[in-house]
Amino acid sequence: xxxxxxxxxxxxxxxxxxxxxxxxxxxxxxxxxxxxxxxxxxxxxxxxxxxxxxxxxxxxxxxxxxxxxxxxxxxxxxxxxxxxxxxxxxxxxxxxxxxxxxxxxxxxxxxxxxxxxxxxxxxxxxxxxxxxxxxxxxxxxxxxxxxxxxxxxxxxxxxxxxxxxxxxxxxxxxxxxxxxxxxxxxxxxxxxxxxxxxxxxxxxxxxxxxxxxxxxxxxxxxxxxxxxxxxxxxxxxxxxxxxxxxxxxxxxxxxxxxxxxxxxxxxxxxxxxxxxxxxxxxxxxxxxxxxxxxxxxxxxxxxxxxxxxxxxxxxxxxxxxxxxxxxxxxxxxxxxxxxxxxxxxxxxxxxxxxxxxxxxxxxxxxxxxxxxxxxxxxxxxxxxxxxxxxx
Length: 391
Description:
This protein is an alpha/beta fold. The protein has 14 helices and 14 strands.
């Protein structure tokens, strides 16, 4: 019986060539080699499931496609995955299991900054490459020898937002931030970089992940003299509540969100209140709207069409793109090293130059285990329930 997943793979099969996943069939001797074991821990359930669910689906889909195309260096890929529910303690437990019992060759995952930070000491001690899908700059700054990440950082998001504000003549800004790992981290980064852009933070409010109403905090901001725009660092349902409350109390200044809400789910949750909201995000959200000459266009259009052929129209998010980039960076590093040896792959990852992914063009070094700059971010605005490229 043909499942929806299998049917989707057939519909999207044409993308194999475009994604560089074709390879000769392995010889009988190669086929008998042990598989390359890819470990993963993701928040597939719980409050961050909107991150982990598309990440896991992406890994499963592309690992199957790579195996169909002959594997990696003639070896099959095997995914070993655990669901953390965004719990840092579970992440530590699962990472230890991946490293000690499952004996994985690499770890791809960590949907959130909190779960990622919890396992870094383990992967550093085990000396196994770890590519995180989380946003916090603390993951790779300072640089840790065995740790890499794919999404733009929260510090970069602050910079991109403030850069856009400069162009609009905005200089007095209020923050309303979630107190979870990502929101707390981005708040700190925005406070730190604001002076570099001539931005003065004139109000600074927070909310807990369990809060269901932020009218009190927003009212304080509304009553603060001189506020010209509001920035909301956070992810999950909190930013959607902020956006609704923002409209409810009639605030008339621009509202900026972070790349932590870069999926259609945010627009669905916030409804009409999302109109006019701006945020920095990856090019994936506006894949078909990119100009023909944009070097990212073939990659993001290819990933979007492949993912949506399997999982449904409109289902793609930048979060699944983080997983795609992580897997393809690992694939390129193994091929460059000619081996899945962890040390050789670590060195090859660090030597990545000009890799085009859904997040942008990646060029890493011993001092940079992300490899993206502000030009990799696109500034988007929500209009009529969809994303519009601002610049």
